[in-house]
Amino acid sequence: MNIDMGMDFDLGKMSASARLTATFRNYAIAERQGNIEVDACLAKGEVPKLNRGYGLDGRELWISLNNLYQKTRGMDDYATADDIVEWCKQYAHPYYQYGPIAEYKWNIYEDVEQWDFDTNVIDLFSFNINTIRKDLEKLYRDTHLIMMFKKCLEKLDISSDLSHITWTSEYVDFDKLPQDKQLMGIDNFLNEMDVFSMKLILDENGEMKIMPGFASVFDAARFTLSQYVSISSDYPTYYGDKVGIGTCECCGSLFIKNGNRQKYCDDIECKKERNRRKSKTAYRRKLQEQHDDSWAWTTKSGKE
Known about the structure:
By secondary structure, the chain is α+β, with helices and mostly antiparallel strands.
């Protein structure tokens, strides 16, 4: 994949693919026919906040959705719905399966009646909690597999990556396979991945433009994941090289690394754990040095 550094396009910034998205102030959680539904709600005279993009750059969006899955894994549906609603209120509504927000409708920012009808009457901005849970899980699993494949192709140690992939036995001995078998396995997986399409649309100026046909935040996250793993590792970290993303050794969350050696995310508790481990390591090192000095002195005295 070739990237022109002079273009108005940076990995993760998604300026070439940013669509209009909506952020709603309120949501309702309701059970219908045994399914939990999440409905965006608008008060009288209210319209959602419209964004160019997803409230995060592409790389942060991708990481945030992975960590949202990790946070809600094992929770019941109602507790999960609460956390997902908070994410939506902070960033963007996750699904646009009935089509993108029409950018050429210049009065869209003030069209209270249309927004009320679309949101409160015909529920265009509603989704099933089981649907988003499945999408979060699939993105999480695909992310860890593809990042493992990336390291494998670069002939790096993937043993720690394989230890995190516990949901399938298919890749248990992947690091022991000959290269042709590894390439075949990677190719088969990529051919079965969800794809996103390119579409010819009308932009905000009423002109035709080719853009990714994203129907959800998950499409946008996969777009960034695809960029991240397809760019050569000799690009700078800013453009997504192999050390740009890390897994926190304390909480297991994905995070954007500030440097090659960073092992912990910026969460306060993770920083505390990092400091505790550093203190223990320093203490053990001091004891070892004292032991070595004592052994060296004893040996020297014996010779004398």
